[in-house]
Specification:
heterodimer, A: about 110 residues, alpha+beta, Arc Repressor Mutant, subunit A, 4 helices, B: about 600 residues, 4 domains, four-stranded antiparallel sheet, about 40% helix, elongated
């Protein structure tokens, strides 16, 4: 694995969590659809199975809540939604990302100007 | 939903087993993730054309899943030790745990429910844990919920998680309530279990509660979504509170109705009349438990302190219902089902001066009223023969307060002893009561009639033999007739005001009256006899023994002009009643009063 791939793996760890929380910011989502959306997201480069353990961990940490809804076709559908602590954590994470991106841009700009 | 074949299950199971450790290390709940993966595969398989989910299909979808939980970061808040502990709790149930939970969480509650439902064992000795069908239904939920939980834990493909968690929460509340009800006897049951090997049934609610708690802990680990326990718990407690509401309201109403303050008393009576349970009020009129088992009643007692004394409760019953408490069928004090150990019920009013509570098993089996009406003398002599029957295993005293016709007196009293008639002696009230009590103490056969108010007497017979034995007595009553305006006379028959016995279902009160004038009464046949006399005969409704019957006598010419009766309170003097036609002036308006 080259340097870039290693760096992407490192970055993805925290970024995936941010993406999951942002995907739920607008409202609750059916687990299967959420996984499909995130798995298809360019640049993130993850497999579908990776997201479920993360969702389980977020639920155990109290950042997301789940509810089941009976489905006429298959098993009960599991919907995920942000909890108030999850919403607060997402706001902090987004602010922090904004800060990092801004500072990174500034560094790049300052570096270029020298 | 497409079915999974065995090979598909095997492939999926192996895949999950290989990833369990990684998931635990990542801070995820492996069982939840496995359930999610399964749902994901089912959802993806639905979109394919295959008729069933095969091993090949599962392999293909798992490859697409390609879950590598190691890529997910470990939670910052949960140390690895906590994750391992969580994983330990989510391990499949061992056979020992499964058998223990099935035995104490399912089988024992079912057996206890059946034993109590069929025998009424607890209801006979302590309290009735199954007073209504709603209670039975609620208790049935406990083993049912535990059974469902066990099935859910044994089957990874379990679907109704939400219902299982809800039922578990409901069962927790119900088991908690009954464990508290049995808390008073739990220590004794434990000792009996340890030393005698008996006493498992009273421990059933506590054991079911422990099983329900253990099962919930495991369910929470495996269920894909959490159901807060407080919702079903509060629902079950609310249902139990609703069922106990009549009792609690009645106790509160009794407490208020017995207050010193008049407005509070009025509020209590209003509460009892509008929302109170007449059955609970009647039950409270009969017995007061030294120990109350119902935890909801404990709470009510905290608010209302101790209930008023029995005499006051009986008075409140009368004020609320308008009926003396002992004129209605007594409640089954220890449940509605057949009581096994009711022989210990003691008649505290025996040989006393009160009719007091009705006794179970004591009934009036026969009632016959014979009499002769002397139109010329304006008198009637009635003989009321009564046969009491006692189905109880203990000897009983039959007591009744009788209302005699106006001016009537008891002039004869007979008791059958070993089939022979024995006449009673008349004496002062204190002397005859003392004699009666001494005979009662020697367990001989006395009968006592004492006056207890205007035209009222208290009849006491002892003992009515146990186990279906009978006792026969006869009360002779001399009655002056009451004149009616049209020259006829009225004879009111005696009746019971209060009794400590019920009326036998078969009782048909018979009446046979003879007279020298025509007699009529509702429901009775009037006929003329061969010797020119008149008779009134037939049977009246049992209710007539408590409501009374009036007979009208049409005397032969010359019309009945006068009757006399003893002047109450002035010995040696008579009251003579005569009817004399007079002409009265037409009424006029009174002149206005002077200012």
């Amino acid at each position: 694995m080259g340097h870039f791939e290693n760096w992407v793996v490192q970055l993805r760890r925290g970024w995936l969590e941010l993406c999951v929380l942002n995907a739920l910011a607008a409202g609750e989502r059916y687990g299967y659809d959420l996984v499909q959306t995130l798995a298809a997201m360019p640049g993130l480069d993850i497999t579908e199975g990776t997201i479920y353990p993360l969702l389980s961990r977020l639920r155990m940490q109290g950042l997301v809540a789940t509810r089941l809804e009976e489905s006429p076709e298959g098993p009960a559908r599991k919907y995920y939604a942000l909890t108030p602590p999850g919403r607060k954590a997402l706001a902090l994470m987004n602010d922090h990302v904004e800060l990092l991106v801004r500072q990174t841009r500034r560094l790049r700009h300052e570096g270029g100007s020298r | 939903m497409k079915p999974w074949n065995e090979a598909a299950e095997e492939v999926f199971s192996q895949y999950c087993d290989q990833r369990r450790a990684n998931l635990l290390a990542a801070g995820a709940d492996p069982d939840e993730v496995f359930a999610d993966w399964r749902c994901h595969i089912v959802e993806a398989a639905l979109r394919s054309q295959a008729a069933e989910v095969t091993a090949e299909e599962v392999r293909r979808l798992l490859t697409r899943l390609d879950a590598e939980p190691a890529e997910t970061p470990a939670p910052r808040s949960a140390p690895s030790g906590a994750s391992v502990a969580s994983g330990h709790n989510a391990r499949p149930l061992s056979i020992f745990a499964l058998v223990a939970l099935a035995l104490f969480g399912v089988a024992l509650p079912v057996i206890t429910l059946l034993v109590e439902g069929l025998s009424g064992l607890c209801a006979s000795i302590l309290f009735d844990p199954l007073p209504t069908l709603a209670h039975v239904a609620l208790i049935t939920l406990v083993p049912l919920a535990n059974l469902l939980a066990l099935l859910a834990l044994r089957h990874p493909t379990w679907r109704p998680w939400k219902a299982t968690l809800w039922l578990n929460g409901l069962a927790m509340g119900i088991a908690l309530y009954y464990a508290l009800q049995f808390a008073v006897i739990t220590p004794f049951a434990c000792i009996a279990l340890l030393y005698l090997g008996l006493g498992l049934l009273p421990l059933s609610p506590l054991m079911a509660l422990v099983c329900t708690l253990l099962l919930r802990r495991r369910l929470r680990r495996m269920a894909p979504a959490a159901v807060p326990v407080w919702r079903p718990l509060l629902t079950s407690l609310a249902a139990l509170l609703l069922l106990a509401a009549p009792k609690i309201i009645t106790l509160t109403g009794l407490h208020l109705a017995a207050a010193d303050n008049a407005p509070t008393r009025a509020r209590g009576l209003h509460l009892l009349r509008s929302c109170g349970s007449r059955e609970e009020l009647l039950r409270a009129s009969y017995v007061q438990r030294a120990v109350e088992f119902d935890p909801l009643v404990w709470l009510a007692r905290l608010l209302t302190a101790q209930p008023p004394p029995l005499e006051q409760i009986r008075e409140i019953y009368y004020r609320v219902t308008g009926q003396p408490f002992n004129t209605v069928r007594p409640p089954d004090l220890r449940g509605r089902r057949g009581a096994l150990f009711n022989a210990d019920e003691w008649d505290f009013a025996q040989s006393g001066e009160q009719v007091a509570a009705r006794l179970r098993g004591l009934t009036l089996e026969q009632s016959r009223l014979d009499g002769r009406v002397e139109a010329a003398a304006g008198l009637a002599y009635l003989e009321w023969t009564l046969v009491f029957k006692n189905k109880d295993p203990a000897q009983r005293e039959a007591r009744a307060q009788m209302l005699l016709p106006p001016g009537g007196v008891v002039s004869r009293l007979t008791l059958w002893v070993n089939g022979e008639e024995r006449e009673a002696a008349f004496s002062g009230r204190g002397q005859v009561r003392a004699a009666y009590q001494s005979v009662v103490q020697r367990r001989r056969d006395p009968v006592l009639v004492t006056t207890c108010g205007p035209d009222r007497v208290l009849l006491q017979c002892f003992p009515v033999p146990p186990n279906g034995g009978t006792m026969k007595t006869r009360v002779g009553i001399t009655v002056p007739l009451s004149l009616l305006a049209n020259g006829e006379a009225l004879l009111a028959l005696p009746l019971f005001l209060e009794t400590n016995f019920g009326l036998d279902a078969e009782v048909q009160p018979a009446v046979w009256l003879e007279s020298d004038g025509a007699l009529t009464a509702p429901g009775l046949t009037s006929e003329r006899l061969a010797d020119g006399k008149f008779a009134l005969r037939g049977t009246v409704l049992p209710a007539a023994l408590e409501q009374g019957t009036g007979c009208v006598l049409r005397p032969p010419a010359p019309a009945l002009a006068a009757v006399c009766r003893l002047e109450r309170g002035e010995p040696g003097r008579l009251v003579l009643q005569t009817l004399r036609p007079v002409s009265a002036p037409a009424p006029t308006r009174c002149p206005p009063a002077p200012p």
